[in-house]
Amino acid sequence: MARYDRAITVFSPDGHLFQVEYALEAVRKGNAAVGVRGTDTVVLGVEKKSAAKLQDSRSVRKIVNLDNHIALACAGLKADARVLINRARIECQSHRLTVEDPVTVEYITRYIAGLQQKYTQSGGVRPFGLSTLIIGFDPYTGVPSLYQTDPSGTFSAWKANATGRNSNSIREFLEKNYKETSGQETIKLAIRALLEVVESGGKNIEVAVMTKDQGLRQLEESEIDGIVAEIEAEKAAAEAAKKGPARDA
Amino acid sequence: MKLDTTGLESALPLFGTNCQMVDGFTAAPAFDLPTTLDFDGFQKEAIQMVKPAKGTTTLAFIFKEGVMVAADSRASMGGYISSQSVKKIIEINPYMLGTMAGGAADCQFWHRNLGIKCRLHELANKRRISVTGASKLLANILYSYRGMGLSVGTMIAGWDETGPGLYYVDSEGGRLKGPRFSVGSGSPYAYGVLDSGYRYDMSIEEAAELARRAIYHATFRDGASGGVASVYHVGPNGWKKLSGDDVGELHYKYYPVTPSTVEQEMVEVSGA
Questions:
Q1: What is the spatial distance between Cα B130 and Cα B127, in angstroms, rounded to a whole number?
Q2: What angle do CA A233, A236, A237 make, to 5 degrees?
Q3: How far apart (Å, rounded) are the C-alpha atoms in residues A208 and A34?
Q4: Which of these, A16, A77, A170, A194, has the minimum number of CB atoms within 10 Å of its CB?
């Protein structure tokens, strides 16, 4: 009984919080998610495990709205995600009620991160097993942002980031190929990054685009297929260009 | 609605007793009921006693160059003038002002508390709070103390990203956005002068003079208003105190004594 009362998250002798690190392991096993920030667009892309034949794919949306101008994607335990998303949605509306202003992306990220941190310092609970990617536009200045939180409760802003399976390879790719983009270019960059670790095809990727004026737009499978085809064509052209001149010499 | 007890931790026991009363039939009352035949009438009287007397005149209005805020400086306890030099315009922060009408202690405390909340908001969100947000914070707190005898009739004036802002907030929980407000026992007189002389595109000096005159006329007719007419201006760079004139002196400035010819002078009568 005595052991049962202890907080689940305790420090190890060398200063680690093992439960938090194990939660990060759970994140690493979750499906890949990538976020890219452009000058006027922010894009989220998530790997979609092939749906079972009888499953209604529309009921498993992985990129969700927190408010009209904020969206979230995550990697890790999806059930934990539901709880966190519901609390965040309530906080968005509560903020609107008490201050008559929509939340800023930084505010809601801070709230979610704070919630995740609380569960690493409470008795009888375990940390949330997910990392989130939060995108949105500042309601007044219109500046786009991308933030990431993780089970330890830390958060920071990013130009582009990935989380979940093989996030390291995606991040390497982004570090090599990131540049300030806008509109369609941003979407392409996000999909190219995701394609590094996911089989190509519209049915394996879920992509959502947020713009200041139109809010969140989920891309149709056909649209994604189209962009993937474009990317493959560009890749093939680049390969051919590399091989071509070499043969002449 | 979730009661906002962040302002006063010590108010918690107060809420405890209140909830018991609201629960009604299940719990016994926490205090002895007064011996009276008409308890409802007694309760109404008690509420009327603490109801805001609000002996004061304050006003604020939005115009082209920002917000003009003005107030008198008299504090009265019934017929006794307890002070002629009360600061009724409270500086919440360098770009927001609040006016005081009603209970002086209530206004001062809650405005200071609002200043704390605004500063915490700035530190947490790395940007200033809007006038909308600040007035809403205050209104929510006052609403949660509704019926408990707070007496606050205040205007929150400031300049934020969206331009000049003016809100009226009171202890009944009301919150109104508007271009012109006057609060207090002298407000009808102030409104008369303010509304008839108001134009949106006035210069700062014209607007200050209008505000000063409105306060003066209110102090002239209302016994509970007097002292010094202070005028503040809130512009894009924050507030600035423009003037503080004694209303007695203002009277002679507006209505100077004209020396008139004397008909007959009094002469000494030698002892008869």
A1: 9
A2: 85
A3: 11
A4: A16
Q: pLDDT (tens digit, 9 = 90+) per residue, A94-120?
A: 999 888 889 999 999 999 999 999 998
The residues of B carrying an active-site annotation are: 56
Joined together, the tokens standing for residue A107 give 């505010």
Separation of alpha carbons A88 and A97, rounded Å: 14
* Beta carbons of A140 and B161 less than 8 Å apart: yes
For chain B, the distance separating the N- and C-terminal CA atoms, rounded to the nearest angstrom, is 87
Find, among B70, B69, B103, B104, the residue nearest to B86 by Cα.
Answer: B104
A161-175, pLDDT tens digit by residue?
A: 999 999 999 999 999
Structure tokens that stand for A200 in this block: 């190509």
Q: Name residues of chain A where pLDDT drops below 50.
A: 1-5, 249
Query: In A, which residues are within 8 Å of B129 by CB distance?
Result: 99
- How far, CA to CA in Å, does A50 sit from each of A129, A130, A218? 22, 21, 18
State how far the Cα of A237 lies from the Cα of B246, in Å rounded to an integer. Answer: 85
8 A C-beta contact, residue B67 and residue B159: yes
**Separation in Å, CA A23 to CA A75, A77, A128, A151, A212:** 11, 9, 7, 6, 34
ipTM over 0.85: no
Q: How many CB pairs under 8 A join A and B?
A: 22
Among A7, A190, A101, smallest CA distance to B132 is for: A101
Amino acid making up residue B114: L
Mention every residue, 6+ apart, whose C-beta is less than 8 A from residue B139. B169, B173, B174, B175
Q: Whole-model pTM?
A: 0.77
Q: Do B130 and A106 make contact, defined as CB atoms within 8 angstroms?
A: no
Count H helices and E strands in chain B, helices first: 7, 12
Tokens of B56: 């004061």
Chain A contact set for B125 (CB, 8 A) = 104, 106-107
C-alpha–C-alpha distance, residues B198 and B211, integer Å: 9
